[in-house]
Amino acid sequence: MRYTTSIEIALPRERVAQLLADPANIPKWLRGVVVHEPIRGEHGQLGTESRVIMRQGSRETECVETITRREPVELRDIPDEVTVHFDREIAGPGMWSAVRDRLTVAGPETTLWESESEYRFDSRIVRLLGRLMPGSFRKQSRQHMQDFKAFAERGLDVRDA
Question: What span, in angstroms and rounded, lies between the C-alpha atoms of 153 and 146?
């Protein structure tokens, strides 16, 4: 299963990239995150593997996230024509996913965040859920983007909701 979601954020692209890359911000906008900690490497850097625990209702899921691309490495003084890339792979029970995020300049003070998601399922149950409810995956991705936008633009923290 593959899909792309996008959202415009009313902040300069460089600022959006810095907010996304800062590990201290993850619990402020990533709804359901319980743990997000590097197990090998430095947070957010190419090749880093992190242990991630997500809670949805009473269910917790643990997975490993690997950063597969981060360009440019330095998130300061980025030329307007350069696209910022944050790519990662996530492996968990019964599934693997890849997320490819792109940040581009949409205007003088506006950033376009495009996120391409790909999912593969190992178990029959999860594969069936993916086929029966593909919209729920898109909806969750969209919710994460909207939560980040609210955090970045207005300082809203999902933990306060």
Answer: 10
